[in-house]
Design a protein that fits this description.
Distance between the termini: 25 Å
Number of domains: 1
Bound molecules: the ligand O=c1ccn([C@@H]2O[C@H](COP(=O)(O)O)[C@@H](O)[C@H]2O)c(=O)[nH]1
Number of strands: 10
Shape: globular
CATH architecture: Alpha-Beta Barrel
Strand order of the largest sheet: 2-1-10-9-8-5-4-3
Length: 274
């Protein structure tokens, strides 16, 4: 099944636009896990098991694994998600961007090694740097457009022919690069006005929307600005707020993560229009 078909099915079957981000930080893991040899894998698997019925996607961020020399644990985690929860799309957040020959290897890494349904990519190097991902006709390439960080404005807001650069990216992806219908865009929940502008340009293209939770983006404004024509269209990502949720009495870390994921999923759904 293609990335976009799997995502549309997940939006429906899970009744969820919540993407659970997997950004394991060893120093924030529960003490009882920290000394285990495969602590990262054990932690992420527990989070996945606790939230799988609440998520329309899982998004491991590769830097958190690579920094700890834990790519083997990321591989195992991806295998686990694919076999246990095949209905939940797996988005590898890698933000790759390089010349075509190198991009071919990055595409193999994402789609062969990790078996991701989609990968995040950087548009700065242009069409030939994106083409290798599009060779994988059923997989997604999710292109950075209007990122959630404040510094994203340095370049993304520059006017080119009177139009901000991020809008050029949105148009380029929608009109030229989306040859297989498997492209998406990254637009931050911290910029709802720009999210609405992007939605107006790209019709029902899926958007990966990080920035709620730890980055403080407003859920109601995000849903109002970014929903597609059927009240879906987004993977609204939260990572740290779920992963490191404060445990309440009687909860372990996974139960706390589930509680926050449930609250977040429901808060998003409250604002959706049928
Ligand atoms: O514009 C972007 C693109 C990607 N991210 C990634 O999303 C998560 C956000 O984590 P939180 O803990 O929910 O803030 C993280 O993996 C980023 O690398 C982003 O934040 N903004």
């Amino acid at each position: 099944m293609s990335f976009t078909d799997k995502l549309s099915a997940a939006w429906q079957s899970q009744t969820s636009l919540l993407c659970v981000g997997l950004d394991p930080d060893l120093s924030r893991l529960p003490a009882e896990l920290q000394s285990q040899p495969d602590a990262i894998l054990a932690f992420c698997r527990a989070i996945v098991d606790a939230t799988a019925d609440l998520a329309c996607a899982f998004k491991p961020q590769i830097a958190y694994f690579a920094a700890l020399r834990a790519e083997d644990q990321l591989e195992e985690l991806c295998k686990y998600i694919r076999s246990r929860y095949p209905q939940v799309p797996l988005v590898l957040d890698a933000k790759r961007g390089d010349i075509g020959a190198t991009a071919e290897q990055y595409a193999r890494e994402a789609f062969e090694r990790y078996g991701a349904d989609a990968v995040t990519v950087n548009p700065y190097m242009g069409s030939d740097s994106i083409a290798p991902y599009l060779e994988w006709k059923d997989r997604g390439a999710i292109v950075l457009c209007r990122t959630s960080n404040p510094g994203g404005s340095d370049l993304q807001f520059l006017k080119v022919d009177g139009v901000p650069l991020y809008q050029h990216v949105a148009r380029l992806v929608a009109e030229k690069w989306n040859t297989n219908g498997q492209c998406g865009l990254v637009v931050g929940a911290t910029f709802p006005e720009e999210l609405a502008q992007v939605r107006a340009i790209v019709a029902d293209m899926p958007l990966l929307v990080p920035g709620i939770g730890a980055q403080g983006g407003d859920i109601a404004a995000t849903v109002a600005a970014g929903s597609d024509s059927v009240g879906a269209g987004m993977m609204i990502n939260s990572s740290r707020a779920i992963l490191y949720a404060q445990a309440q009495a009687g909860e372990d870390f996974a139960a706390a993560a589930r509680r926050v994921a449930l609250e977040t999923r429901d808060a998003i759904n409250t604002h959706r229009k049928p």
